[in-house]
Write a structure and sequence with these properties.
alpha/beta; Rossmann fold; 9 helices; 16% strand; globular
Length: 273
């Protein structure tokens, strides 16, 4: 299996499909690059080089004790781009991966990043504070950490339902997708699963969004129960210079079904333009 050295030498797994202009994907928590397989195949079939890595502590990557923070995630993404010698890159990130992609593009991507795409992403900042009074209370993230420590297997099974909107009365539930979420979650190391909660919830990406000098597509479902759109995309679009907001009616946080098909079309259109 292909590996590269992360910013501190950690052994990190990646997929590299197709050939052509490079598009690099960053996945959400607690998933892995497997969450992007449909999009990787779509882009590779349409003349792009589609690349995705397992974040440190996730999937097949080394389960590190340290570095489970957004600065290191972005530095690891830089290490992947350097390892493959990429230029004119499009970076795409879902949820936590959206924060990773934005921080990488703002701090490491000058002259290298052509476009940015975020999907259900955490920027600008999730946690409630004096400067973000409408954010999610810290207690909600404390509860997530406690559930990870006490019985993460059961927690992943329960979290998958609001993640994919399967707790809505109109939803057609896919047990297979719930099982796949659980499997990816169980491949995430305990320390990384725990520490990543702080990384995605408390990191403030405001200045990163302001610093972006590349066009960005901000995609978000308006029924996202994990990263509510009013705390994320609706604020992020006001901070970027070259942004396009795409709202998907009734779409959840997890990418699947009709939402996934439309997102694929929009992704292709944006990166081909």
């Amino acid at each position: 299996m292909p590996y590269f050295e992360g910013s501190d030498g950690a052994q990190l797994y990646y997929k590299d499909w197709g050939s052509g202009p490079p598009v690099v994907f960053s996945h959400g928590w607690p998933l892995s690059s497997d969450a992007w397989d449909v999009e990787l195949k779509l882009l590779a079939e349409n003349g792009f080089r589609a690349i995705a890595h397992d974040r440190r502590g996730h999937g097949r990557s080394e389960h590190t004790w340290t570095g489970n923070d957004m600065d290191t995630y972005a530095a690891d993404l830089e290490a992947l781009v350097d390892h493959l010698g990429l230029s004119d890159v499009v970076v795409v990130g879902h949820s936590t991966g959206g924060g990773e992609a934005v921080r990488y593009a703002a701090r490491h991507g000058a002259g290298r990043v052509r476009k940015v795409v975020t999907v259900g992403a955490v920027p600008p900042v999730m946690v409630r504070s004096e400067t973000n009074p409408h954010g999610t209370p810290l207690s909600a993230f404390d509860e997530m950490r406690a559930r990870v420590l006490s019985d993460r297997s059961q927690f992943w099974k329960e979290l998958a339902l609001p993640f994919y909107g399967f707790n809505r009365e109109w939803a057609a539930v896919s047990q297979g997708l719930v099982d796949h979420f659980w499997l990816q979650g169980m491949r995430t190391g305990l320390a990384s699963a725990h520490d990543c909660v702080q990384a995605f919830s408390e990191t403030d990406f405001t200045e990163d969004l302001k610093a972006l000098d590349a066009p960005i597509l901000i995609a978000h479902g308006d029924d996202d129960q994990i990263v509510p759109i009013h705390d994320a995309a609706s604020k992020a679009i006001e901070l970027v210079r070259y942004g396009t907001l795409r709202v998907y009616p009734h779409a959840p946080h997890g990418i699947h079904g009709d939402y996934q098909q439309q997102l694929g079309r929009d992704l292709l259109e944006f990166i081909q333009s």
